[in-house]
Design goal:
Low-confidence stretches: 5-36
Shape: globular
Helix content: 10-25%
Distance between the termini: 49 Å
Largest sheet: 8 strands, antiparallel
Order of helices and strands: HHEEEEEHEEE
Oligomer: single chain
Strand content: 35-45%
Structural class: alpha+beta
Number of strands: 8
């Protein structure tokens, strides 16, 4: 019995060692092949409520203090020919509701993109029982193709912001 366990033990140890390795290194795409998650389609137009915000200073548009919320900026989900789609989730504990809108802001404080919420995220209430709505997910679009961006939830009827996270890509 012991001799049968040794090969499985070696495989298990090797798998754990590989799982603990450093993050994957950047690799160059094969010539003529689009990287996974990339489409030749163009970025969707900004939401009507946010179209005039893009390129303006966040502090000028939302001069108040940041308010608390719960959420996350998960990842870059899709690359377009002229921008990217970033996803996450957000919850406003003051109203006990999903955040209605999201803006993306660059390091200089300029609004770089925006998006909507209401996407299904059943994992959120499963992990945080105080959140009852499974539709806390959001998707935001930006014409940026690289760089760090911060995501903010637009709350208080569009008067305030709350921080949802930071993403470097």
């Amino acid at each position: 019995m012991r001799n049968r366990l040794v090969p499985w033990l070696i495989v298990a140890v090797a798998a754990l060692a590989l799982a603990a390795c450093d993050k994957p290194k950047p690799r160059q795409a094969r010539a003529g092949a689009a990287p996974a998650g990339t489409t030749a389609a163009r970025l969707p137009a900004p939401a009507a409520w946010a179209a005039e915000m893009v390129g303006k200073p966040m502090g000028q548009l939302f001069p108040g203090e940041l308010k608390p919320c719960v959420g996350n900026t998960d990842n870059l989900e899709q690359k377009y020919s002229d921008g990217v789609k970033i996803v996450g989730w957000g919850w406003d504990p003051a109203t006990k509701a999903a955040i209605a809108h999201v803006i993306l802001v660059d390091l200089s404080g300029l609004v770089a993109g925006a998006g909507e919420t209401g996407l299904a995220r059943p994992d959120v209430p499963a992990a945080k029982p105080q959140i009852k709505d499974p539709n806390t997910g959001w998707a935001a679009y930006t014409r940026r193709t690289a760089g760090p961006l911060d995501a903010f939830g637009v709350i208080d009827g569009g008067k305030s912001l709350c921080r949802l996270g930071h993403l470097e890509f």
